[in-house]
Amino acid sequence: MRAHQIMTRSVISVTPDTSIVEAANIMLKRHVSGLTVIDNSGKLVGVVSEGDFIRRSEIGTGRKRGRWLRFILGPGTSASDFVHEHGRKVSEVMTDSPVTITEDTALAEIVDLMERNNVKRLPVVRGDKVVGIVSRANLLQAVAGLAREVPDPTADDDHIRSRIIDTMEKNDWCPFGLNVIVRDGIVHLSGVITEERARQAAIVAAENVEGVKKVHDHLCWVDTMSGVYLNSPEDDELAKAS
């Protein structure tokens, strides 16, 4: 399998000038752990993630280094720490020049890049434009949904996936972080919904695409006020049976 067969196409982005507070609120509201950073020309310039908010002065978690270590590292490191802990804009805390992949990158290479660079997500680029993102969650979904003795995805499966995503993304009920995996005409839907009626709409949208044989629902429901998180009924049944 390759990146385009599992990636999330709807990528949530911010700009370098987006405030830290706004970026944190977007991540909480959209239930994502990282955001791509795009400049005014649409070019990828960085990635900001949950890890960039761990060492912050507001919550008293700034890095504390001993005098001897500060002497060894020099004032440059202390200056960088200060900017990261007190910066007000995304550009001051983001990882710039992030590792990227293309739509044709094989899953084995994706895993290798994640492990080698100690990252949890990789932007998918076409030229210098972001067209998707592959996270550890996408890989987990691929394993959970497709660990079966069935053929690799075909060209028809890719077309089915594209048509399902195109149909859903036109609607305001489209799940956040929508991911669609298709193999041998069998569809696995995952992502976050905040309205239970969106679940049936998503299933119907997939069922109406020509070539679809069956739809598996892995959409989780999240209450935006309390943060309560519920798995799909299908996944709950599988968990009880295992």
TrEMBL record:
Keywords of the record: CBS domain
Domain CBS: start-end pairs: 7-65, 94-150
Parts of the chain that traverse the membrane: none
Organism superkingdom: Bacteria
CDD domains reported for this sequence: CBS_pair_BON_assoc (cd04586)
Keyword rRNA processing: no
Keyword Manganese: no
Domain BON residue range list: 156-223
Matches recorded under PANTHER family: CBS DOMAIN-CONTAINING PROTEIN CBSX3, MITOCHONDRIAL (PTHR43080), REGULATORY PROTEIN (PTHR43080:SF26)
Name recorded for this polypeptide: CBS domain-containing protein
Lineage: Bacteria, Pseudomonadati, Pseudomonadota, Alphaproteobacteria, Hyphomicrobiales
